Amino acid sequence: MHGWPVQRERDLIELALRSAGECDVDTWPARDHEIGFGTPLEVPVSWSDRLTVGNEAALATTNATAVVSLSRIGRAEDRGTEKHAQAWLVDSDDPSSHTDLALGLHDAADAVEELVREGETVFLHCVYAHHRTPSVALFHAMKYGGLRERDAVEAVREALGQNDFDDLLWRPHLRRGCHMHGDMSEFAHRQERASAR
């Protein structure tokens, strides 16, 4: 989405928020940088040699030729090109915060794959790489990486060195994404039963 003469989507969002009195130079999307988020983290994944995953701090250090941001970024962090996709997902376990979470996860994984197929090296990130990044990475591994659910789960956990993913963003594709590979595994059935309680 673009405005006249050279306004981009970010500029139009800022204009709308300023008009509503909800934005100034120190708030998103006008500020140059989001608040610092510690040590940069960027790690490769096993199912694609063109994809790395990590946190927002690594935006300043990545050598990737394309970026998919799942969280808000500062104006100076926006590459301002077609090679920086911004697929915002809400980091919330409240189902009412999401219009269509499964669709959002699909779209973000599709954005990653589109850039990969264009020959780019892609850095996928959110703020801390605790919820949104592993969720989209899991979906990408199952949808495009040829991994079955159990293997995809282990691959994402191994890449990020974490074993405690169990939030709302992580669960939907354990239920829906596995349909791409036939019957749901026992792990997915357990998640389905737990979420129904």
Q: How is this structure best described in words?
A:
The chain is an alpha/beta fold and 197 residues long. 34% of the residues lie in helices and 12% in strands. It is built from six helices and seven strands. Residues 177-197 have low confidence and may be disordered.
The proportion of residues in beta strands is: 5-15%
Helix content: 25-40%
Q: Please mark out the parts with pLDDT under 50 across 5 or more consecutive residues, or reply none.
A: 177-197
Widest sheet, order of strands: 3-4-7-5-6
Taking the sheet with the most strands, its summary is:
5 strands, mixed
Order of helices and strands: EEHEEEEHEHHHH
Termini separation:
42 Å
In terms of structural class, how would the helical and strand content be classed?
alpha/beta
* Rg estimate, integer Å: 17 Å
The number of E-state strands comes to 7
Q: What does the overall shape look like?
A: globular
Report the total helices: 6
Mean pLDDT: 76
